[in-house]
Specification:
Largest sheet: none
Order of helices and strands: HHHHH
Shape: flat
Helix content: 55-70%
Structural class: mainly alpha
Distance between the termini: 36 Å
Number of helices: 5
Number of domains: 1
Radius of gyration: 18 Å
Strand content: under 5%
């Protein structure tokens, strides 16, 4: 991920390639990474990965021009729909 920090690749390209999944990994393993930094490897351990996650978090919002499909909007309002679609 040093290439991202040095400007050799664009964060938007990585995000579009599906690399935003690293956000999940960071949230799951952050306590382990921080403890590993504290005990063994110092503050530079996986710092490029943390920078990459920060860039993915920055980009992890829907564009303003995004309009959900009509069917999805109707499904959200349907009380018979799966519980995950009824988050409000």
């Amino acid at each position: 991920m040093r290439a991202l920090r040095n400007g050799l690749v664009e964060a938007e390209d990585r995000y579009d390639m599906g690399m935003h999944g690293v956000i999940f990994l960071w949230e799951k393993y952050r306590p382990i990474i921080e403890e590993n930094r504290r005990r063994y490897n110092g503050q530079n351990y996986l710092r490029d990965f943390e920078y990459f996650v920060g860039e993915m978090l920055r980009l992890d919002s829907l564009p303003e021009s995004y309009i959900p499909p009509k069917e999805l909007a109707e499904l959200r309002e349907d009380p018979r729909a799966h519980k995950w679609f009824n988050l409000k």
